[in-house]
Every structure is written in C-alpha cells, then in structure tokens.
Amino acid sequence: MGNCKLQKVIVNHNAFQYLSREFNFETIPVMGLSPDEQPSAKRVGEIIELSKDGEISTVFFEELASDKVAQSISKESGLKVSSLSPIGNVPANKANDGFLKIMSQNLENLKEALDCQ
C-alpha cells in the first residue's frame, strides 16, 4: 500500500494497530479492544465530528461482529462502511480461505478506503 490520498480510517475497535503501523496510516477506534463493547453516545458523537474533516472515507466493522455502530456512524456522517477480518475467527463462507487470502482482502479494503494508487 503506497501513495495514499487519505491517512485515517475509523475501526470498530482497536485491533488493527499492527496494520496501521506497518502501512503508515491512523486507525481511530470507536471502542477499546473488545468487539463486544458498546461505545458511549459521546464517543459516537466524537467520531462523527472527526469524520467531518474530509480526511476519512470509511468506517470499518469487524467480520462476525455487529455492524450496527458502523451503520449508525455512516448514516450520520456519510462515510462508507466496509469490513476487516481479525483473522482469529472467520465466517463460514471463508473457512477454506487461507491467512494470505484473508489478509489480502483486508489490504484491498484498506487501499480503497485510503484511496491508494
């Protein structure tokens, strides 16, 4: 991933720092480390406000977790919604996909969100 126009994405929780460090972009987590945690209304409002700067195009949710928060943020901000796989668990339709294929899809989703060449 290189030559990206954007440098920030919103993620449902703080599980993707390893990718942001490796590819030099910022993840803005809605919640802490647990995908089961629920964000406060205040935090959702802060995220929506952050999205207004034009430097963010996408809010990500984790596969196998609810996309309700991401959809709510999208509705208020106009951001696109996409998914990332944490690799630890995968949906049944991806059970036969290997690590490299799943990570490759994560990177494709991020490249689109960050508008990379």
Quick overview:
With 117 residues, the protein is α/β, with parallel strands linked by helices. 37% of the residues lie in helices and 17% in strands. Strands 2-1-3-4 form a 4-stranded parallel beta sheet, with helices on both faces.
Tell me, briefly, the overall form.
globular
Counted beta strands: 4
CATH class value: Alpha Beta
What's the overall average pLDDT, rounded?
A: 88
Query: Can you tell me the CATH topology?
Result: Rossmann fold
* Pattern of helices and strands: EHEHEHEH
Write the layout of secondary structure elements.
Blueprint: E1 8-11, H1 17-23, E2 26-29, H2 41-50, E3 56-62, H3 68-77, E4 80-84, H4 99-114
Parallel strand pairs: 1-2, 1-3, 3-4
Helix pairs in contact: 2-3
If you had to describe this structure to a student in words, what would you say it looks like?
- The protein is of the alpha/beta class.
- It has a single domain, classed as Nitrogenase molybdenum iron protein domain (Rossmann fold).
- The protein is built from four helices and four strands.
- It has helices spanning 17-23, 41-50, 68-77, 99-114; strands at 8-11, 26-29, 56-62, 80-84.
- A four-stranded parallel β-sheet has the order 2-1-3-4, with helices on both faces.
- The model has no long low-confidence stretch (mean pLDDT 88).
